[in-house]
Amino acid sequence: DPAIAVVGGDGAPEQSPHDPLIDLKTLGPKTWLPSPAPDIALAGSNDAVVTLSSLRGKPVVVLFYLGSSCPHCREQLKAFAKEKKAFDDLGAAVLAVSVDAPEMSRAFLASPDGQQVPFTLLSDPERKVAKLYGAHDTFEDLPLHGVVLIDPEGKIRWSRASADPFTDTGFVLSETARVMRLLEGRRKTRV
C-alpha cells in the first residue's frame, strides 16, 4: 500500500519501536478538523464584556495588536476598518484585542486615527487571550500581532501570528467567504 511507509531491503514493512509506521491516509486535509476556539470574555472600550460565545452563528475575525501606541497596529486597524462594509456583508464581526485598558482604547477611539475604527476594541492586559490564541512570544514573553478567523460554529479556520501586523484584508475577506461557502455546502448535503 503506497499510503504506508515501507522500509527494508525486501520491500516488506518494518516497524521500529522508535519509528512506528503511520498510515498516511489518516493524515492530511481530508481528515483535518478545525480546533474549537477558546471562549473569551474581555472588557470592551465601552466597558461592556464581550464574549466570543455571544457571537456564535456568525464568523468572527479577531485581530491581536500591540496597543494604540503602536503605529503599525494603528495602520492594521485602519486597513480592517476600511473593509467594514465587506465584513458586514459577510455577516462577520471584527474584534480587536490588545493590552490597552478600556480607558486607553476610548482615548484612542476619540483620536483622529481611532475615529476611523468602527469595531470593538477589547482589553487583555495580562495577555491571557493572546496566549490562548498563539499571539504571544513565549520565549521573549511579548505580545505578537495576530489574526484569527473563527467560523460561525466556533471553530478556528485560519490564524497567523507574527512580529509584523497582518494587513492583507483581501485575504481575510476571501477566506471568510470561502469558509461560509464551505459551511453552506455542507449544510445543503446534510438536508
- List the secondary-structure elements in sequence, H or E: EEEEHHEHEHEEEEH
Mean pLDDT: 88
Which structural class is indicated by helix and strand composition? alpha+beta
Poorly predicted segments = 1-7
The main pleated sheet reads as: 8 strands, mixed
How far do the termini sit from each other?
Answer: 36 Å
Share of residues in helices? 25-40%
Structure annotation, total helices: 5
Shape: globular
Rounded to the nearest angstrom, the radius of gyration is 21 Å
Strand content: 15-25%
Strand order, main sheet: write it out.
1-10-9-4-5-6-2-3
Q: Tally of extended strands?
A: 10
Question: How would you describe this protein?
Answer:
- The protein has helices at 71-82, 84-89, 102-110, 128-132, 169-190; strands spanning 35-36, 41-44, 49-51, 60-64, 93-98, 120-123, 136-137, 142-143, 145-150, 155-162.
- The longest helix is centred in the C-terminal third of the chain and has 22 residues, at 169-190.
- Strand 5 (93-98), helix 3 and strand 6 (120-123) form a beta-alpha-beta unit.
- The chain is of the alpha+beta class and 191 residues long.
- Helix content is 28%, strand content 22%.
- The protein has an eight-stranded mixed β-sheet.
Helix and strand topology:
Blueprint: E1 35-36, E2 41-44, E3 49-51, E4 60-64, H1 71-82, H2 84-89, E5 93-98, H3 102-110, E6 120-123, H4 128-132, E7 136-137, E8 142-143, E9 145-150, E10 155-162, H5 169-190
Parallel strand pairs: 4-5, 5-6
Antiparallel strand pairs: 1-10, 2-3, 2-6, 4-9, 7-8, 9-10
